[in-house]
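Hi V.,

Quick status before I head out on leave. The structure for the redesign project is tokenized and pasted below; the design run finished overnight.
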């Protein structure tokens, strides 16, 4: 981004960063977008150049002008010291944990965490000799009772992307004050447009860029951004592990970023409308932190400036046939993993199977909904028919 012609200090708003950040047409013959640099080898002119560590581009694994541009956008939005790109959200999560943990250390993880994060911790981290403990997502300042001398990392995901508990990051951060403990948080749901956890005490923010940043269900990518204290270690571990995002995927992710602002606001409005409509049905329990009756609504309102495209609802207990009757015959809502694209999705899930710290006691059937950009009345009638099929199959 260029400075103002008169060089007045200029702090661009988030949507200006999204549209103008990380690109320099004057360096690309005037073309608006930075092209894909598809490369491994970089040719040095002289031996002196080959030995000059200050030369930015030395080998494909160390990034290109395009990856630098995308990283710059995320860095600026998150208020971070820097960002690295990884081939998936899960690799951004594993990278961040591996950056901070060694044998004998302990990590505390919210019980509401994305299941593959839990699987990484329970397999690779445990095998490395790291103690893994899960905690009540609503623990807040109570986390101090779980800390030991070995605790090195607290891992949050707010809200949990299946059950939508909000974690009280400022209270958790205050409880860790003066201890050498790193807070890592998965911010995929809110994006930095609606939540900037580094400003509230987190140290490293990870994203499944696959979801909102890419926005079109066609790329896998992750990002990890850190504050000053952790950026060097994060970047060094990223290089050592060789986690490089593909240039073509980085191009698509950068393109997705340009419209993130309008997409987030539109997703927010639609998800809230659909959630509020479902909430009117007394048989339906809606899990959406922006609804005033959500148990964490006060924390949500205090810390977030908006809400995402994804929420869940729980229907009264009924046999599997009722779940199948709902999801097998949707006209528009697709059944599949991931979210953040233009198309609506619905996914049944059973949190009770996953939880270990706080048992999930609701016996009902949970459905996670991603609200896309189809005609809103079409979406409503699709879901209304699905609910009718559920209740009639269940004999309710
Ligand atoms: C999908 C997801 C991830 C993992 O991202 P991938 O890009 O699929 O590896 C991490 N966290 C959350 C909250 C997600 O929804």
């Amino acid at each position: 981004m260029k400075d103002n012609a008169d060089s007045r200090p200029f702090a661009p708003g988030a949507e200006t960063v999204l549209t103008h950040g990380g690109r320099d047409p004057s360096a690309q013959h005037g073309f608006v977008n930075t092209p894909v640099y598809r490369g491994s080898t970089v040719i040095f002119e002289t031996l002196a150049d080959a030995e000059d560590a200050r030369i930015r581009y030395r080998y494909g694994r160390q990034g290109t002008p395009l990856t630098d541009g995308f990283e710059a956008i995320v860095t600026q939005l998150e208020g971070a010291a820097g960002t690295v790109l990884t081939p998936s959200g899960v690799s951004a999560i594993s990278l961040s944990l591996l950056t901070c943990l060694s044998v004998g250390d302990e990590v505390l993880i919210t019980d509401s965490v994305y299941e593959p994060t839990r699987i990484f911790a329970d397999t690779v981290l445990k095998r490395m000799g790291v103690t893994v403990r899960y905690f009540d997502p609503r623990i807040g300042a109570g986390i101090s009772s779980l800390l030991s001398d070995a605790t090195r990392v607290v891992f949050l995901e707010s809200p949990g992307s299946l059950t939508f508990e909000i974690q009280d990051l400022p209270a958790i951060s205050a409880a860790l004050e003066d201890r050498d403990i790193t807070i890592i948080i998965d911010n995929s749901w809110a994006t930095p447009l609606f939540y900037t956890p580094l400003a509230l005490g987190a140290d490293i923010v990870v994203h499944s860029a696959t979801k909102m940043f890419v926005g079109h269900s066609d790329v896998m990518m992750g990002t990890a951004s850190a504050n000053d204290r952790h950026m060097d270690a994060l970047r060094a571990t990223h290089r050592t592990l060789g986690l490089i995002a593909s240039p073509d995927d980085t191009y698509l992710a950068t393109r997705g970023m340009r419209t993130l602002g309008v997409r987030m606001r539109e997703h927010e409005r639609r998800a809230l409308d659909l959630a509020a409509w479902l909430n009117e049905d007394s048989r339906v329990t809606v899990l959406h932190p922006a609804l005033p009756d959500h148990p964490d609504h006060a924390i949500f309102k205090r810390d977030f400036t908006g809400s995402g495209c994804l929420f869940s609802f729980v229907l009264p207990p009924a046999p599997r046939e009722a779940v199948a009757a709902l999801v097998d015959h949707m006209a528009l809502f697709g059944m599949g993993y991931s979210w953040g694209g233009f198309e609506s999705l619905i996914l049944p899930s059973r949190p009770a199977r996953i939880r270990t710290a706080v048992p999930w006691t609701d016996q009902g059937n949970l459905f996670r909904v991603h609200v896309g950009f189809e005609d809103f009345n079409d979406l409503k009638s699709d879901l209304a028919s699905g609910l009718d099929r559920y209740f009639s199959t269940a004999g309710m």
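Above is the designed sequence. The pocket of pyridoxal-5'-phosphate is lined by residues 88-90, 114, 157, 161, 186, 188, 208, 210-211, 220, 222, 338 (CB under 6 Å).

G. will cover questions while I'm gone.

Best,
W.
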